[in-house]
Structures are given as C-alpha cells and as structure tokens.
Amino acid sequence: MKLNKYLKASVAALAISTGAAQAADVEVLHWWTSGGEAAALNVLKGDLEGQGIGWQDMPVAGGGGEAAMTVLRARVTAGNAPTAVQMLGFDILDWADQDALADLNETAAKEGWDDVVPDALKAFAKVDGKWVSAPVNVHSTNWVWANKAVLDANGIAAPETWEDFVAAVEALSAAGLTPIAHGGQAWQDATIFDAVVMSTGGPDFYKSAFIDLDAEALGSDTMKEAFDRMAFIRANVDDNFSGRDWNLATAMVINGEAGFQMMGDWAKGEFLNAGKVPGEDFLCFRFPGTQEQVTFNADQFALFKQGDAVGAEQAALASAILSPSFQSAFNVVKGSVPARTDVSDEAFDDCGKKGMADLAAAASSGNLFGSMAHGHAAPASVKNAIYDVVTAHFNGEYDSETAVDELVTAVEIAQ
Fold it and tell me: What angle do CA 404, 405, 411 make, to 5 degrees?
C-alpha cells in the first residue's frame, strides 16, 4: 500500500513537471491553500473522482492570486497551460481576448447557466456570447461586522443611515472604545471607500465614477463628500492601524476592543473560527445607505484550450463547479454565497442566508455592481491608480478637495 502511494505521487509529480497530464485528469491551478478552502475543494475533487477523472492539484499561495497569475503566464508561454485556473474579473477577459480559453457553451446550455447566474457575473464569465469560465462564488464587499455585546452595552442599534453611523461611532468613542477596527493597507482603504462612495452617491453615481470612469462624477462635490466621510472614519480608527492585516482588525471586533469593521464577507470565517454565533455574538449588515446594493467580486475557474474541442474531463469539471451541491458545500465553508441564485440556503448560517437573499434581490433589481476595490469595476491599472489616491488621503497627505483633483488626474492617466 505504501509503495503504491509513493509510486502514484511520483507519477503525478512527473506528469506535472513534464506537462504530460494523464488522459482523464484535470490539472487545476489555484490559490486556495487554507484549511477550509482546501476542504471545500475536496468536494469538487470527490465529484470528479466518482466520474473516473483524476485531479492534479497545483496550489500557489499568496494574496489574491498574483503569484498564481505569474505561474500561469510562464506555463502558457511554454505551451503548457493547466486545464483550469482560478481567476478574478478582468484577468478572465484578458485571457479570453487572447483566444486562450475553451468554449463552455455546450455545457452551459445543457445545464441552463444563463437562467441562474446573475448578469453582473456573466460580464466576466461570457465573452462575445461564449461562456469561458465557471463562477464558483460571490463575495460581497459592502458588509459591516459588529460586536453585539459592545453595541448593546452602549445602547446602539445597527445603523441604517450615515447619520446613524456617525452617532454610533461618536457614542463608542465617548465610551473610550475604538469605534472602527481597520488595517492600513491600500486594498482595505479601498474596500471602505467602495462602500462610502455607494452610500454617498447611490448606485448611478457609483457606476458613473468607477465603471464608466466619468470625469465629471470623479471630480464632483459628491466625491468630495465621500472623501470627507473617509476622513471621519480615519479619525475614529486606532493609532496602530497602519499595515495591520484584515484578520487582526476582525479580531479586535471579536475581542470587544472595537465596535465595527467594514470588510467583505470573508471576515465571517474569523468570527466562526472563534466560536461566535451570528445574531448572538456578532452582527452582519450592509454599510449604512447601501442596503439595496451589493458590491462584489467573484472567483471563477477559467478553462484553457487543450485542443480543438472541450474535453470530456473539462466539461465534467465545469459541470461540477456549477452544480448546486458544490456551490452550497464550498460557500458554506468559504463565507461567500453561491454564484447561482437557485441554490437552497438551508445549510447556511444567518449571515449566509442574508447574503444570498441580498444577492438575489440586487441581481433582480439591477443593483449588483462589481467592486472597484476588488478588481471587478475597472481594469487593474485604474484600480491601482484609485488605490494610490485613496490611501494618500486616508493617511493625511491630501485634503478632500485635493484628493478629488488627484483622483480625476490619476484615472485619466491610468486609462
């Protein structure tokens, strides 16, 4: 038994190193390396193994996939693309434009993907009418996480408007607590800015500024008001925020050291790992003023061309990814919600159920928007330019009026 185990491992390693994947195997490049993510992927592996399809795992740890994308470029340049690759947003569109991705229309039509995947996700999964990737999940980014005991002790209800939020923050500050837990990293600053802009200007303004990149919206008084609100938030984080990882900020809320954190739904996993119960120990709600909107990013698997036609193993992989059973099992663990709107919420906790209901409502009302902060509103060059201005303002380098001017210039140059 041990000999067979080691022989199999050696053969698999040789196949990966030479690019000679076994006939009925899929080689999957991804950056899901945490325990929970790996456990969720095992559901997918098991599904394929039941169909006689092997899984060659190629995990590349690091951030939001930057290291994985570097490995991918090297593989494609060498003429040895993996079967499937985890991807986000504009990266998918870039590879599709290079005609590198397989046509999944046959599988999509057979299984009715068009009927169950929101249009806002299709914008990154379909190119020129062709399905080129299979969405795994939807992470929504405009969440607030709160310590319920801290709020209760200070007579604070979950704020619904910006004015409610200001009053809550001032009450916590008066009580000697840190009102807002935050990590001073560019993407975290931008995550808050996403929600603040949506709350300040509404969905039409958000679209004009971050998706259409309209100079008038970017340079408007409304944008200045958004920067003013960011300055209020900056004044109510602790002095040690700079460089703090997001999960350490979440821990401040968990431990009662801070009242609120503005962060995507991946933060929920930190509360659950600490044994906290939604609705009892912590609250999850949309950033005040964005209750009807959802800003999102979505993990997808892009399938690279392996020949003239989609192989049976690729079709099976795509089918398994969009299956309701995998969508439920994976997202219960990941903290995100399914990429299809017809999955039962039975297995999800209260925050998960709310996230699924919010997604379905936002998708049907046209209020589902790609997150600027997480690369689903504008290309990376524009996103990074906005990051620079938002972080400079948050750190006191610009006042709000200067930040607006810098934002217009930075986006113009980045396009």
Answer: 85
In the chain, % helix, strand, coil (3-state, to 5) comes to 55, 15, 30
Quick check: 358 and 296 in contact, CB under 8 A? no
Q: Where are the alpha helices (DSSP H) in 135-245?
A: 148-153, 162-174, 186-206, 215-218, 221-234
For CATH 3.40.190.10, list the domain ranges present in the chain: 2-138+298-364, 140-295+368-414
Q: Could you say which residues of the chain have pLDDT below 50?
A: 1-23
CATH of domain 140-295+368-414: 3.40.190.10
User: According to the model, what pLDDT value does residue 2 have?
Assistant: 35
Provide the angle, in degrees to the nearest 10, between the axes of the packed helices 380-394 and 186-206. Answer: 110
Each residue of 271-328: pLDDT tens digit? 988 999 999 999 999 999 999 999 999 999 999 998 878 888 999 999 999 999 999 9
C-alpha 410/C-alpha 240 separation (Å) is: 28
* Best CA proximity match to 321, nearest among 93, 131, 79: 131
CA distance 88 to 375: 8
Q: Is 213 left (phi over 0), alpha (psi -120 to 50) or beta?
A: left
Geometric angle at alpha carbon 227, from 224 and 228, rounded to 5° = 85
- Interatomic CA distance for residues 332 and 406, integer angstroms: 41
- pTM for this predicted structure: 0.86
Return the amino acid letter for 244.
R
**Domain 2-138+298-364 falls under CATH 3.10.20.70:** no
Q: Residue 98 — φ and ψ, nearest 5°? A: -90, 5
**What are the distances in angstroms from CA 76 to CA 69, 72, 131, 303, 357?**
10, 6, 20, 12, 39
Contact (CB, 8 A) for 296 and 124: no
Output the CA torsion sign for 61, 387, 164, 182. positive
What are the distances in angstroms from CA 316 to CA 53, 284, 321, 332? 9, 36, 9, 22
pLDDT per position as a tens digit, 89-116: 999 999 999 999 999 999 999 999 999 9
| Amino acid 311: pLDDT | 85
